Amino acid sequence: MKTPIRVAVTGAAGQIGYSLLFRIASGAMFGPDQPVILQLIEVPVEKAMKALEGVSMELDDCAFPLLKGMVLTDSANVGFKDANWCLLVGAKPRGPGMERADLLKDNGKIFIAQGKVIDQVAAENARVAVVGNPANTNCMIVASQAKRLTPDRFTAMVRLDQNRAQTQLAKKAGVDLTKVKDIFIYGNHSPSMFPAFAHAKIDGRPATQVITDQAWLQGPFCETVGKRGAAIIAARGASSAASAANALVDHVRDLMTPGAIHSVAVKSNGLYGFDPEVWAGMPVRTTGPGHYEVITNYKMDDFAKQKIAATNKELVEERAFVADMLKG
After folding, report:
1. CATH class of the 5-156 domain in this structure
2. Domain 159-321 is in which class?
């Protein structure tokens, strides 16, 4: 049997965490033959830790053969110790009337602390995936605290946007969603992100030849994908949970699967016109477990360039809000 992977999860008793942990323990994230040890981190509040205890009881009761142990803690030093993957799900939600800049600064303090601890105590091969919003900038903040771990170890999740875009294209074309390929997300995980439909394929043909309604592609399609989270909150009275957890499973599984091509937010290094220092969604190819390369040969038309410029502007503005936090 393989050596267990240690997986640290913050916000483990929250809605996304509750939808996520059973998927990890079942083998959906790392494969049917990869044992795991879950290191579950919650805030030091009695109610949260009690809820985490209940989640761990349910995990026990599922009798997952791959689950080889659990750590329940409110200490980052304990939770991230020797972790191979650090899944940063927990974050302060945006409250009524809260400005985005305030949310960035409040969450920034959380992610600064986590970044320092991860760099100090996580495994030598540690990878970090950020889900807590604003995910791209929180990822940048975490990475800025690292002296040992390199920037490529830190990714933010735009896979939920990719999954949403894939489904919307399939519905519009009237095909099974497995027929939709190469729909990638560029930029921020926010309404400004850009689903690059011109590069997508539907049943092997360019998506723009199958869906010839250019106005729909440039308008309702982009808007639906970008504002899907708000639409779900309006419908169910709570933010996306199961779909976000599922997207994180996809995100990590594909980063562990050589040859997988998918959307990930990574340090842009100036590719596709993004500011070099921001984390932006881009198409990547997994070259080995935990390793990837950005696919750089996609050409952008004027509409795509305009959309990328807009989402890059937002990312640069977010970085400016937290500039004093990026000094490490």
Report:
1. alpha beta
2. alpha beta
